[in-house]
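Query structure, 367 tokens:
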């Protein structure tokens, strides 16, 4: 996502709308500072010098007070820290930014095309069948059918008169989002980790607010792989790491093996080739690394993990935010090994592509 800064025009916004815009901007800056509130406020102050966000009606100090009053941040011994409500706000802003763009270019949420005893009511109706839930009866259409058949004076209700609102079959899926935190995610003057975190936060909010039967686990992979909670996401930063794709996939597969959901998938956001694996047969988790090319030892072990996921009926969708020819060739082999999918994405449409694919998968799954 890109913010385009221009001179602030407070005449075009109400005070409340102005605050909301500033809150959203502050949320995005927090992702870039890995949740460091003090650094984010410093950035905001520097941006104000050029773009004049604040004036006598709303100073930076007053904005900080608003952040505290809203419960987004707190002052601890002169240092500001992000509170749980602030973490939620960052997640919600990420969702709004991505889904707002999605609604302009896609059809929105897509449920399964199957009709069934689901929980989401359609505007269409169907004839009553044994087992349909009474609360879904279309009273108006049902009475109309009875009056049309017998007339008002001889009213009687038959089973054939009853119309039921159709419902959409709700599905559940277990998803692991794999996020690359290797050093290349901030190399070459391009910040790739902030959009990746924004996608993770937005997807988390989508599932928490819309698809509560679904589960989402987040795994970071660099030299090693580790799981993080949604609340930790704003504080994630890139390290001086290699890319241990195999370790990330292996941890994701183990997480999904414990899920009862019939539908299991991995979304992987990465920009580089696998450049590290754990040495086989060691208990110390010693890492074998090779940064200079597509090392056959590393590539073969990574492809083995893709096959293992396929055998466990776990589909991998890769979102590659780099398009070097040798990387494309590897991803093609990787995708073939898993029978998965791959997208070559720009940073600007990464979130939209992840959301669209998630919703498309939802429409195909069956309980």
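Result returned for the query:
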């Amino acid at each position: 996502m890109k913010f385009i800064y221009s001179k602030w025009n407070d005449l075009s916004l109400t005070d409340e709308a102005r605050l909301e815009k500033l809150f959203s901007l502050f949320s995005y800056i927090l992702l870039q500072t890995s949740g460091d509130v003090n650094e984010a406020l410093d950035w905001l102050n520097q941006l104000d010098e050029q773009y004049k966000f604040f004036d006598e009606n709303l100073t930076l100090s007053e904005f900080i007070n608003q952040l505290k009053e809203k419960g987004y941040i707190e002052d601890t011994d002169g240092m500001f820290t992000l509170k749980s409500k602030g973490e939620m706000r960052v997640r919600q802003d990420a969702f709004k930014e991505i889904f707002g763009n999605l609604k302009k270019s896609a059809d929105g949420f897509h449920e399964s095309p199957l009709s069934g005893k689901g929980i989401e009511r359609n505007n269409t109706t169907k004839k009553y069948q044994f087992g349909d839930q009474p609360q879904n009866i279309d009273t108006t259409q049902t009475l109309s059918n009875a009056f049309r058949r017998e007339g008002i004076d001889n009213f009687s209700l038959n089973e054939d008169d009853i119309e039921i609102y159709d419902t959409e079959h709700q599905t559940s899926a277990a998803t692991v989002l794999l996020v690359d935190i290797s050093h290349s995610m901030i190399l070459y003057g391009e910040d790739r980790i902030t959009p990746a975190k924004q996608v993770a936060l937005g997807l988390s909010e989508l599932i928490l607010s819309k698809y509560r039967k679904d589960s989402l686990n987040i795994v970071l992979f660099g030299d090693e792989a580790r799981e993080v909670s949604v609340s930790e996401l704003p504080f994630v930063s890139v390290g001086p790491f290699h890319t241990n794709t195999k370790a990330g996939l292996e941890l994701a597969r183990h997480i999904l093996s414990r899920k009862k959901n019939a539908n299991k998938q991995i979304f992987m956001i990465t920009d580089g080739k696998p450049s590290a694996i754990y040495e086989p047969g060691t208990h110390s988790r010693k890492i074998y690394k090779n940064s200079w090319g597509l090392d056959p030892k590393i590539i073969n072990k990574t492809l083995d993990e893709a096959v293992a996921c396929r055998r466990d009926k776990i589909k991998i969708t890769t979102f590659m935010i780099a398009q070097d020819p040798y990387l494309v060739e590897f991803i093609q082999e990787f995708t073939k090994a898993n029978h998965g999918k791959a997208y070559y994405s720009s940073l600007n449409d990464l979130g939209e592509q992840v959301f669209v694919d998630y919703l498309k998968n939802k429409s195909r799954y069956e309980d």
